[in-house]
Amino acid sequence: MTDQAPAPYAGPERVLSGVQPTGDLHLGNYLGALVKFGRLQHEIETFIFVADMHAITEWQDPAKLKSQVREIAAAYLATGLDPKVATIFAQSAVPEHAELAWVFNCVARLGWLDRMTQFKDKAGKHKERSSVGLYTYPVLQAADILVYKATKVPVGEDQRQHLELTRDIAQKFNHDFDAPNFFPLPDALTQGPGARVMSLRDGSAKMSKSDPSDQSRINLTDDADAIAQKVRKARTDPDPLPETVEGLEGRAEAKNLVAIYAALAGRTEAQVLGEFAGQGFGAFKPKLADLAVSVLGPIGGEMRRLLADPAEIDRILGAGAEKARALAAPTVAEVRKLVGFWAG
Ligand code: TYM
């Protein structure tokens, strides 16, 4: 992939992001993505969707997919997204994502997709048995972003490569169809200590929905006891906390817990160490557990309350889809003309 100079894109700033409805949301999703959505909505026009078309790149039970979508929507609302401010919708309600993805399939190069590490991780040893959709997944992700001409994409560190691909696709499209700055080259927003939350059982593995051990992650729906127990049992080392962030090098588990504390408290890792330097995990873990319970406890409760009224969630998603389509449809109409389609 090529490095590009920043494009003088003249359109408005716009935020877009999404989460797949493929399992319980965890602390990594919250700190890497969700917590930023609620903040950004007050600064920039914000579109947040549930990626149900991405979800089916791996088998999903059709009888459950709708309720999985509602759960993610409930998590958005419970973590502070306001449907009067942000546009919240389900990807499958806006067919323009899929249409633009087809055009982008013809713009992206096989060599670009061959480099995507997330496909390699997910396909594992069974590449030939993976769906074609799993392979072209990042192309659909580029369409999700660019169909709204979004310029800012709040995500965790693991999505950075997909954002680079999105920029490459935007740049090649603009060039191939002689449409300078038609699409912006969007930036990934990955700042902060929560950008890469690691497993509680293994400081070298990402906290993930697909980890077979539930002890490896804190779910947004865990109750206070479960949260406290998982923090208590989190893997650590016997040394006290150091005075500086550099002192955490080579101590992956310690670094992770300090980063989680910092992200939950809205502080830097240096500030956290300023308070806890010299203390062992026997003292630090109960403080972290209390903090996690105080932040996450109300979210789980609010999600349960919202999910008791699925019709209201559907109403919000329906209204969001209308707003999203009103923006996506003109982009696709312009793309049809640029590409020269008969139906353009
Ligand atoms: P998904 O559903 O895997 O994850 C949702 C968001 O959570 C972030 N995340 C993490 N952040 C920090 N630490 C972790 N351990 C951690 N695990 C997950 C992810 O980076 C993500 O921001 N491909 C996307 C969904 C998507 C999308 C998009 C995102 C589809 N189209 C367009 C942005 C824009 C995904 O699978 O996220």
Number of domains: 2
From the 3D coordinates, which CATH architecture of the largest domain would you assign?
3-Layer(aba) Sandwich
Report the end-to-end length measured between terminal Cα atoms: 30 Å
Mean pLDDT: 96
Rg, Å, rounded: 21 Å
Which series of helices and strands comes N to C?
EHEHHEHHHHEHEHHHHH
Tell me which ligands are bound: tryptophanyl-5'AMP
- Give the tally of β-strands: 5
State the share of residues found in helices, binned by percent: 40-55%
Q: What is the approximate shape?
A: globular
The CATH superfamily of the largest domain is known as HUPs
- As for the CATH topology of the largest domain, it is Rossmann fold
Largest sheet: 3 strands, parallel
Summed up, what is this model?
With 344 residues, the chain is mainly alpha-helical. The chain contains 13 helices and five strands.
Structure characteristics:
single chain; 344 residues; Rossmann fold; Tyrosyl-Transfer RNA Synthetase; 2 domains; binds tryptophanyl-5'AMP
Characterization of the model:
The chain is mainly alpha-helical and 344 residues long. It folds into two domains: 14-196 and 309-339, HUPs (Rossmann fold); 214-305, Tyrosyl-Transfer RNA Synthetase (Orthogonal Bundle), CATH 1.10.240. 52% of the residues lie in helices and 6% in strands. It has 13 helices and five strands. The strands form two sheets. A three-stranded parallel β-sheet has the order 1-2-3. A two-stranded parallel sheet has the order 4-5. Strand 1 (15-19), helix 1 and strand 2 form a beta-alpha-beta unit. Helix 4 (96-105) packs parallel to helix 13, helix 7 (132-146) packs across helix 8 (160-176) and helix 10 (252-265) crosses helix 11 (269-276). It is globular, with a radius of gyration of 21 Å. The protein binds tryptophanyl-5'AMP (TYM).
